[in-house]
Amino acid sequence: MKKLPQRFLLLCLLLVAILRLPSLFEPYWYGDEGVYLTLGQAIRKGLVLYRDIHDNKPPLLYLLAALSGNVFWFRAILLGWMLTTTILFWKLIKNLFPKQEKLAEISLFTFSILSSIPLIEGNIANAEIFMIGTTIAGFYLYFIAKKWSQYLLAGIFFSLSVLFKVPAVFDFATILVFFLFIAKKKNYQLLITNYFFLIFGFIIPILITIIYFASRNALSYYLNAAFSQNLGYLFSWRAGTMVARGLSSKIGLISRSGVLLVTTLLIFLLRKSLAKPFILITIWFLFSLFAAALSERPYPHYLIQVLPSFCLILGILLTSGRTVIKRLAFSLIVLLVAGLVVVQFWVYPVFGYYFNFLGFATHLKARAEYFAWFSPQVNQTYAVANFLVKHTQPDERIFIWGDEPYIYALSRRLPTGRYTVAYHIVDYNGYQETIETLTKNPPRWMIVMEEENRLFPGLFNFLNSNYLLEEKINSAKIFHRRSIIEID
């Protein structure tokens, strides 16, 4: 009997590997990965995160990008990570539902597919796809914990998730809320002790990062970029600012908070008629869905946070014999669908993605055509990067006005200043800082993307006074510095 479940797990692992294989051959095309790899490159060259180069996520993703060095190894690390995550998810399911093979198989099979295909960006090395691994590990350790060290380790894994991306704190909140559902007088003291070690474990990794960045004179930069600025980012969506969108944004947040509160209260009232695993999964689903919809941004990779609990809910819906459980599970999926409709989450094509790869793998498509399927800009990105490699030194800085971070990553050149993309300069009001850096350390080469129409006060006066147009590659204008710099 044991061989059959293990065989099913192996088949799912093989499925994950096959579905992820094309991701290893993708070009440099996804903007956020370009930012991660550029920051990873900066780490490899000795720069301090946040102080010397900026992005708005906690540090673990950039450390993985530094370890990988390029998009192939970044995706290869992700492949290994997701194989491990799939095994952990299987172990979690088997511990939650040890005698329900069909539920386990449906949940794992669904997870293996949806976490691997490009529908919700499972193929991309974003923070969410990494953090579900540490989150699942945290839930697994929490559920099997018999001693304080396991609770401590569970807390550490939940903390690592937050150090990939801040919304993972809602997954940890699931465990804290679950305490209210299971606390009784006879086990209260033991629960308090266990939760003390859980919370202490959660604090440890975050505290280590605080100590590290304080030692590098970068603490204020770290706290501001990874946490403070993230609050504006997570609670709003408006191009060019991190400020909330006014009344409609507040109403949306209040409405979602109300739904979360009411549904959690309903589960609390029904808790005596529900099994603990179902209660835990339901709270996990509700809190992760709230986190995914928090900013009302329609980015599909936000849904990855909901994926593990959704797969479990789906398995319960299709296998449970209890009517009340089926109705609750169905209601949760209806709630998810409502969230998808309200936020209008985007999705990526699946079949076209694999047909594009097959065409390239069988030499029916040339490389340029294969690259262009991902984005019309990809071939231009490679051409500009090749130009820079030929005309600059390895440690030379460049500046790009536009949202093309992959040019930095591909050319292995760092930006002049802390910002890798134009929208960061705009969103975080980095105009003055960037102009001062350009004036103090003018790069030999500056690139302006024609499609970039956001205003940058002072940039073009500086550019026109001190640079000459050297080359134009599609929409990329490449400027070379004059021998004499004029500074106003």
TrEMBL record:
<feature type="transmembrane region" description="Helical">
    <location>
        <begin position="152"/>
        <end position="183"/>
    </location>
</feature>
<feature type="transmembrane region" description="Helical">
    <location>
        <begin position="195"/>
        <end position="214"/>
    </location>
</feature>
<feature type="transmembrane region" description="Helical">
    <location>
        <begin position="328"/>
        <end position="348"/>
    </location>
</feature>
<protein>
    <submittedName>
        <fullName>Uncharacterized protein</fullName>
    </submittedName>
</protein>
<feature type="transmembrane region" description="Helical">
    <location>
        <begin position="126"/>
        <end position="145"/>
    </location>
</feature>
<feature type="transmembrane region" description="Helical">
    <location>
        <begin position="277"/>
        <end position="295"/>
    </location>
</feature>
<keyword id="KW-1133">Transmembrane helix</keyword>
<feature type="transmembrane region" description="Helical">
    <location>
        <begin position="72"/>
        <end position="90"/>
    </location>
</feature>
<feature type="transmembrane region" description="Helical">
    <location>
        <begin position="301"/>
        <end position="321"/>
    </location>
</feature>
<keyword id="KW-0812">Transmembrane</keyword>
<feature type="transmembrane region" description="Helical">
    <location>
        <begin position="251"/>
        <end position="270"/>
    </location>
</feature>
<keyword id="KW-0472">Membrane</keyword>
